[in-house]
Amino acid sequence: MSDPFVLQSGAGSRWVLHPPEDPYGDGYVLALPTELHGGGMTAAAVVELDGIFVNPQTTRLSEFFGTLASGWRGWDGVRYWTSARGQLTLEAAHDGIGRVSLGVTLRAADIAPAFAPWSATLLFGIEASRELRRLALRLSEFLEAAP
Question: What's the CATH number for 5-144?
Fold first, then answer.
């Protein structure tokens, strides 16, 4: 079993992704145990990711980070990614001078995320050139090791 993927801020906040599992053994859905820790708060949920077959309108988590890393010089607005059932949402904004703000929201699994009984959000600051590229590479390698 591989080690978890951890994104940690200087303030001690952490986003932890545990190795994905294939709960049905068919490769269609991956279950990704996920945690947020920060400010005395801990939130945990199992996030569902698309497995081997991905809807053409869907972007994989590793592809989302790859797109952020390739656009390290900046972009307008906010870029979003949401997991298959909405348990995990990412929002990335570039400040135009070399930093990316990454908002990570974890919520209880629910058919309509707006009605989830709880949610937790942490914000991470990431240096846009080297740090963001390293993060994207580490995440891609972590997810590629999945069953």
Answer: 2.30.31
